[in-house]
Amino acid sequence: MSVKVYNKSPLFSAHYKTSRRETFTIWMKSLVCHTNGCTVFDSNGQIVYRVENYDKKCSNEVFVMDLRGQVLFTIRRKKTLVFGRWDVYGWSSCNCNIKKEKPWFQVKRYCRIFSGDIGCQLTVGQNKYWIERSSSPYIGAFRIVNIYGGIIAEVSLNGYGF
C-alpha cells in the first residue's frame, strides 16, 4: 500500500527543497533487511527520505533519514493520560541530537467533545497548525491547515483527494 502526499507550499527540509508542488509516494518497506520502516520517493522516483525503526514495529522512537542514512530528525512518542503526543527533535550534520531537551516541533492529539472531531495539533515554535481527517469514511485522506483554514498540505491514499 502506498500513500501520496501533495504539498501545497514549499517543503521544509534541510536537504530537499522546492518551491513547486510536489507529490511523494510512501512505500511501506524498509531499505534495511528485517527492520520496520518505510521509504519516501519524490515524483521522479528518487528516494528522498527513509524512516527506520530498528527496535520493533510499535516503538516509541523512529528515525527520519536522508538517502545516505544521515539522521535528519527523531520522532518520539510521549504517552499522556488521554491522548498521545509526539515530539520531533532535530539532528546536526555530525549526526548528534541537538537541543534534546527542547523539541523542534510537537504533534498532539485532540478531541472536540461536542462536534466529535478527532485530529492533531501541530506546533512549530509559536505557529499552530491542524491535521484534519477527511469527512468521508472510505477515503484515507488528511490535510494540514493553518489557523485561518488555509491548506498547507494534503495526504491522500493512492491519489484520492478530499
UniProtKB/TrEMBL annotation:
<protein>
    <submittedName>
        <fullName>Uncharacterized protein</fullName>
    </submittedName>
</protein>
<dbReference type="InterPro" id="IPR038595">
    <property type="entry name" value="LOR_sf"/>
</dbReference>
<comment type="similarity">
    <text>Belongs to the LOR family.</text>
</comment>
<dbReference type="InterPro" id="IPR007612">
    <property type="entry name" value="LOR"/>
</dbReference>
<dbReference type="Pfam" id="PF04525">
    <property type="entry name" value="LOR"/>
</dbReference>
<dbReference type="InterPro" id="IPR025659">
    <property type="entry name" value="Tubby-like_C"/>
</dbReference>
